[in-house]
Predict the structure.
Amino acid sequence: QVQLVESGGGLVQAGGTRRLSCAASGSIFSINAMRWYRQAPGKQREWLAAITSGGSTNYADSVKGRFTISRDNAKNTVYLQMNGLRPEDTAVYYCNAEVKLVSRAIIDSWGQGTQVSVSS
């Protein structure tokens, strides 16, 4: 019903920047909150940032001041601008969205993840 596709991952040197994108498609009526998470090897999935449909944002302490979440409602796309990357930011990054379908049902949808690797 809904697909979330992340892009923008890759290998980057410490101190570098990367911008992730996540585009939603399918039987979408509207999208409420959109979020980014990450999961490093051997660790639990970690919430990073959230943005409401109105543009209000919230961040985990681990990324506050370095990462910026934004969205383009017309494109059903959420972004994560990552600056000052550190080796400990290495993880698979996932987007998540609370989607109201055309049927008016509300579902929680996840992307497939994109790998970000930061070299020291």
